[in-house]
């Protein structure tokens, strides 16, 4: 294995200002700007994710960031009240309820999870572990 001192993840957005507004106002996260480069999402327990602008941004086709929460339903309600819209997949392998939650805990399929997008179309999730 190679040697390293720290690691982080990052992904692109098409509009930094819209992204900053979404992550700070709708999700309530703190950020730290890097002049002319992008910004850091300052996450729990000292974790960080770097978001950077990309003119030809194409959203990932997978979840780029997962937030573990105590109660997926209460968190969904809170985020919905702030204008966050949850995704409803038409996939028999992801059987979501009418609210948009995959009830994995009940079905023995892992955590309860719900997905939503940031303004750039990047998929995020909230999930409730057992």
Question: Which features does this protein show?
Answer:
130 residues, four-stranded mixed beta sheet, 3 helices, 8 strands, 19% helix, 32% strand
Low-confidence stretches: none
Structural class: alpha/beta
- Largest sheet report: 4 strands, mixed
Mean pLDDT: 93
> Got a strand count?
8
Order of helices and strands: EHEEEEHEHEE
Provide the helix percentage. Answer: 10-25%
The Rg value, from CA coordinates, equals 16 Å
Distance N to C terminus: 32 Å
Task: Choose one word for the global shape.
Answer: globular
> What is the oligomer described by this structure?
single chain
Number of helices: 3
Strands in their spatial order, largest beta sheet: 1-4-3-2
> Roughly what fraction of the amino acids lie in strands?
25-35%
